[in-house]
Design brief:
The structure is a single chain. With 254 residues, this protein is of the alpha/beta class. 44% of the residues lie in helices and 20% in strands. The chain has a single domain, classed as 3-Layer(aba) Sandwich (Rossmann fold). The protein has helices spanning 3-16, 22-27, 34-48, 65-70, 84-95, 135-148, 165-181, 193-200, 221-234, 236-240, and strands at 55-59, 76-81, 103-108, 121-126, 149-160, 204-212, 246-253. It has a seven-stranded mixed β-sheet with strand order 3-2-1-4-5-7-6, sandwiched between helices. Helix 3 crosses helix 9 (221-234). The relative contact order is 0.14. It binds S-adenosylmethionine. S-adenosylmethionine binds at residues 13, 26, 60-62, 65-66, 81-83, 86, 110-112, 127-129, 132.
Amino acid sequence: MTEQEHLKWKSFWEDQAAVADPHQAVRGDRIMTPAVQSFHDRELIKLIDPQPEDRILDAGCGAGDQIILLGSLVARITAIDFSPAMVARCQARIAKEPNITAETTIEVGDVTGLPYEDNSFDRAISIAVQQYLNPEESDLMLTELGRVVKPGGVVVFHVKDLWSPTGVMITFGRWLRALIKGRPPLEYQYRTHWWYKKEARRIGKIAGSYAYGTWTPFMPKSLMAKIARWETKYRFLQNRWPHGKEYFIKVRVN
Ligand SMILES: C[S@@+](CC[C@H](N)C(=O)[O-])C[C@H]1O[C@@H](n2cnc3c(N)ncnc32)[C@H](O)[C@@H]1O
């Protein structure tokens, strides 16, 4: 990704910050079903394993969904996003949230160069950000998270897995379009979760993962929602086919 693409993404997120529904602003879509969403939120919490005295970094916080999720579970949350409009929106939203007990700081900054001292945090999360970074930037972000989190601390990040039905179909479609039409438009990246795990091992040991999203593009929304419910009910994906479109990786920092 060139500097120009980085700027294009930034301006994309500046525009997204104006979308009324907070989930739609950051995901481009509404919550599939509240029950499925809350199941995945619980799985994310299990991976993060927040402790009451923790100081947590949310790298690429968007509209603040994870701040709300963790706001009553830890002592301090520092959140960073490179879009000033998204930061302003997140600050306004969090100011109105009644259940947040953590001391919260939300500021503008880039995940590839974090403005914090070494070992400042017990845990760090970065949810749905790396698909907007090129491989070098993604590496830089992991290195930075490994630097600012204390040894023995935890980093949980979310990626889009190429080896999922959606990842394969979308990537093939883009490749075909690029072949026919030339350069594809600005699009986020699917990479294999093995690639991410290899990169993450530079900063620590893989301590868990969680995958969901076996649906494919072109399915009716109702069928996707059904599949999402089956996944959460039977949990087959975790044990037999760990290749969901959505992939969480937990790292214990060295
Ligand atoms: C899909 S949203 C996810 C937001 C939030 N983590 C969530 O899960 O709701 C991606 C966010 O990452 C931010 N972002 C992308 N690249 C970034 C970078 N290099 N530094 C900081 N934030 C970045 C965008 O501004 C956007 O708010």
